[in-house]
Automatic annotation (TrEMBL):
BP GO terms, sorted: lipid catabolic process
Signal peptide per UniProt: 1-28
Family: Belongs to the 'GDSL' lipolytic enzyme family.
Key words of the record: Hydrolase, Lipid degradation, Lipid metabolism, Secreted, Signal
Pfam families attached to this UniProt entry: Lipase_GDSL
GO MF, one example: hydrolase activity, acting on ester bonds
InterPro entries: GDSL (IPR001087), GDSL_esterase/lipase (IPR051238), SGNH_hydro_sf (IPR036514), SGNH_plant_lipase-like (IPR035669)
Upper classification of the organism: Eukaryota, Viridiplantae, Streptophyta, Embryophyta, Tracheophyta
Protein name listed in UniProt: GDSL esterase/lipase
Keyword field contains Secreted: yes
Protein species of origin: Ensete ventricosum (Abyssinian banana)
């Protein structure tokens, strides 16, 4: 490497010095990404290690999590890459976006990942699993980042704002407000206090306020990820005693849960339209993972999946009652499973969802545009 750049230096002189200086600054990211930075807010679907050093059951920094990941058990709740890892690659980032909890200041210019397993829109969501960073705290972390970044732009907030406005923001919250709140009546009272419709409205009101804060801090290109079909995940199938039949999803999903989530998702689309109409320069996009996961389940075989109703790793009915335990042996054919554990998709499923978000031309999957177009917008 060193002698190579020395030889090139002889030939290209200043140009190479410039390139070397640039790669020093950008920490050797090799290709220019389509947007200068990528910030991630979310839950365990996209957490990449923020929960590793806190007291919580929502943690995945042990084997076999990460069994197919070059960096090993990083804290990602799957066997390999998450959806945002793949999106970072599709957006042309030469590497993954670092976890806020471990990132050094120099790393923040390319974006940070604030996602935390068990997190929801509501503060109390996920408390049954222990400590975590709810959306409110993730937004606080982002506020700190914006302050530090403004200092890096010599205190010029106009320049910092211009920079932040070109970046993409991934917002993936809401699943736990159903899983680890509304549909967990033994721990939470929300289902006794609110109808599914009122609860969805309440979540949307909270979410809208927090998204407006992220906008005010400088975000303009925001991808809002809908909640998936939680009524069909192995955990819910197991809870409602719908046993795996091996192939297909003939045992049926829990449609009560799916209906409640559809109300929330419908509200997200309205919110995206409202933001785009009302907030100057706002480019909000709705990524319909509910629709995408329906498509994947309905056409499982053509996507290469043999098993879509049980986890590749886990305990109990459908491998869906407890998540994958330390040192447990996962299934061998991980590319033929839709779910890695009771809650989380496998890497191959994450790749499908990321590609749809980035490149789908169907408005039922990405509205009003996909992330490739959002990057250019
Ligand atoms: C901040 O940056 C903008 C754009 O580069 C520039 O026009 C402006 O003069 C700067 N403001 C200060 C106070 O330096
Ligand atoms: C995106 O879609 C276009 C055509 O629809 C295709 O040519 C291209 O390869 C796709 N890109 C990715 C990264 O999937
Ligand atoms: C809760 C739930 O959705 N249970 C379903 C389990 O599967 C049967 C059919 O086998 C459905 O009738 C139930 O609705």
């Amino acid at each position: 490497m060193a002698s190579c750049s020395w030889i090139m230096g002889v030939y290209f002189g200043k140009l190479v010095l410039l390139v070397l200086a640039f790669s020093e600054v950008t920490r050797a990211w090799s290709v220019a990404p389509q947007v200068p930075c990528f910030f991630i807010f979310g839950d365990s679907l996209v957490d990449n290690g923020n929960n590793n050093n806190i007291l919580t059951l929502a943690r995945a920094n042990y084997r076999p999590y990460g069994v197919d990941f070059a960096e090993g058990s990083s804290g990602r709740f799957t066997n390999g890459r998450t959806m945002v890892d793949v999106l970072a690659q599709l957006l042309g980032f030469g590497g993954f976006i670092p976890a806020h909890a471990v990132a050094e200041r120099a790393g923040m210019l390319r974006g940070l990942n604030y996602a935390s397993g068990a997190a929801g829109i509501r503060d109390e969501t996920g408390n049954n699993l222990g400590d975590h960073y709810p959306l409110g705290q993730q937004v606080n972390h982002f506020r700190d980042t914006v302050r530090a970044m403004t200092r890096m732009f010599r205190g010029n907030s106009t320049r910092a704002g211009d920079y932040l406005g070109q970046c993409i923001y991934y917002m993936g919250l809401g699943s736990n407000d159903y899983l680890n709140n509304y549909f967990m009546p033994t721990m939470y009272s929300t289902s006794r206090e609110y109808s599914p419709r009122t609860y969805a409205a309440l979540l949307l009101q909270d979410y809208s306020r927090q998204l407006t804060e992220v906008y005010e801090l400088g975000a303009r290109k925001v991808a809002i990820i809908g909640v998936g079909q939680i009524g069909c995940i192995p955990y819910e199938l197991a809870r409602y005693r719908n046993r795996s039949t091996g192939r297909g999803r003939s045992s049926g999903c829990n449609e009560d849960i799916n209906k409640a989530i559809s109300m929330f998702n419908t509200g997200l689309v309205r919110m995206v339209k409202r933001f785009n109409a009302q907030l100057p320069d706002a480019k909000f996009v709705y990524v319909n993972t509910f629709e995408s996961s329906k498509d994947v389940a309905a056409n499982a075989a053509s996507y290469g999946f043999d098993v879509i109703d049980r986890g590749c790793c886990g305990v109990g009915r459908n491998n869906g009652q407890i998540t994958c335990l330390p040192l447990q042996t996962p299934c061998a054919d991980r590319t033929s499973y839709l779910f890695w554990d009771a809650f989380h998709p496998t890497e191959v499923a994450n790749v499908i969802y990321a590609k749809k978000a980035y490149n789908s031309s169907s408005p039922s999957e990405v509205y009003p545009m996909n992330l490739r177009q959002l990057a250019m917008a």
